[in-house]
Amino acid sequence: xxxxxxxxxxxxxxxxxxxxxxxxGRIQAMGSNSEVLAMAGSQTVVHDADGRLMxxxxxxxxxxxxxxxxxxxxxxxxxxxSEEEFVARLREKAANRDVNGWITGGYWDHEKWPSARxxxxxxxxxxxxxxxxxxxxxxxxxACANSCALRLAGITRDTIAPQGGAIDKDPLTGxxxxxxxxxxxxxxxxxxxxxxxEEKITAALAAMQHAAQLGVTSVxxxxxxxxxxxxxxxxxxxxxxxxxSAWQPVRHFDSLECLAAMEKIETPFxxxxxxxxxxxxxxGASTALLFDPYDxxxxxxxxxxxxxEELNRLIAGVDALGWQxxxxxxxxxxxxxxxxxxxECRRRNxxxxxxxxxxxxxxxxxxxxxxMRDLSMVASVQPSHCIDDLRWIEKRIGRRCSSAYRLNSFLxxxxxxxxxxxxxxxxxxxxxxxxxxxxxxQPQGGPPGGWQPQERISLTQAxxxxxxxxxxxxxxxxxxxxLKSGYYADFVLCAADFLxxxxxxxxxxxxxxxxxxxxxxxxxxxxxx
Length: 529
Prior knowledge:
Blueprint: E1 3-6, E2 9-10, E3 19-23, E4 26-31, H1 33-37, E5 45-48, E6 53-56, E7 58-60, H2 65-73, E8 75-76, H3 83-94, E9 103-108, H4 121-127, E10 133-137, E11 142-145, H5 147-153, E12 165-169, E13 176-182, H6 186-189, H7 197-214, E14 216-222, H8 225-236, E15 243-249, H9 255-261, E16 265-266, E17 270-278, H10 308-320, E18 324-329, H11 332-349, E19 357-360, H12 366-374, E20 378-381, H13 383-389, H14 393-397, H15 408-412, E21 417-419, H16 430-439, H17 459-473, E22 491-494, E23 513-516, E24 519-523
Parallel strand pairs: 1-5, 2-6, 7-14, 8-9, 9-10, 14-15, 15-17, 17-18, 18-19, 19-20, 20-21
Antiparallel strand pairs: 1-3, 3-4, 6-22, 10-11, 11-13, 12-13, 16-17, 22-23, 23-24
Helix pairs in contact: 2-7, 3-4, 7-8, 10-11, 13-16, 16-17
């Protein structure tokens, strides 16, 4: 055996099971201390868990790994509490002579500002008049460009937004304000120089180090085709410290030709067999697609990224190629549209076992819960969205909140659920996700008893969804998500009393040690290095 861990409080194990043995990156045996220690060889390293809770490693079912790395390395506007602080941080970044060219990143949230106004090109110009700037709102569905960036992209008062996007224009002058919604962001994105290979590797390593510190051992999410080789090479060089299931973006029907020419990849640390596509935008950007208009804008139903027939063809085309689908759908009409396309896909391609996914599923009507179950859809949800968005969601959708940010409803209807964070939209911290799922309260507390408390779940349920549930969503439930013989030796150590913590105590909990493939990749205690 390579290593043995004894005196552990092992998750979901029989009372006498205190130890596990690791060989070649997998759990080889579990049992009592004496039973497992009897398997030790002369080279076996024995670790004493000293009564700590041993959980399967957290598996983030929806996040943005490379973007997260660049977020850690770039300008951070997430905590800016006012327009003035927003400008000051951008001005400081622009004054850094070590940074050339474009200023990107940001992840601002104007709902935190006293004005609650969207930023404008003029506001960005005040901070960086001579350098192009494109900074995203934290949900990635709105970006703001300064005047320099708009000029480079050729965006004027006469520019027509692409399907699934919108260019905000001043109602008096007709000039673009700088705000670009959903697909309109691509007009600027396409003129931004691609980061170098070295910059991408630096960002990837920073993201993985951050994940290890939080106990995240597996991640799933979209990865641009130009970035996939980076992760494939890092995996081949054994430099990945998280297992990454990457998703190939599919934006238009022409993307299917590219997908058909691609080879799926199935290795222990890097996988590529899922296609990601969008149906709508987000609630934060008021572009989530709804049947009824937004309560705060009676002329707005959101944005449809695809017409229904195009969506039908895209989903059926991806399915026919044998790829799994991860479909972004937030509004009730978007979820309905995605499910209609899935049903049409079955009609065209035949009724066979599938494990396609709805990403976010933030507003789902009662009738569509049954459709999700009948179509064997996985609900890939991010509980921390709920406790962040509840600051303003009621003014967007009013009484319809009862059908929003469901979690317990999915479980009651026997719909498989996977948990994630959508990092960088929300923090990667699993403790925040668990807190949100269990309490449905804001981090500072309230509303008392939780928002829409009928959707709360237990801590035990949340841990299962964050581990085994996420493994099921990526079709890896025979390899990870549990502490079981034959499974990957990916696990974390937490304080022994972690399962008894409630409320805000969860927010102050930490993973103490992270093990991936049998190797300690992070150790807060200093005992296992």
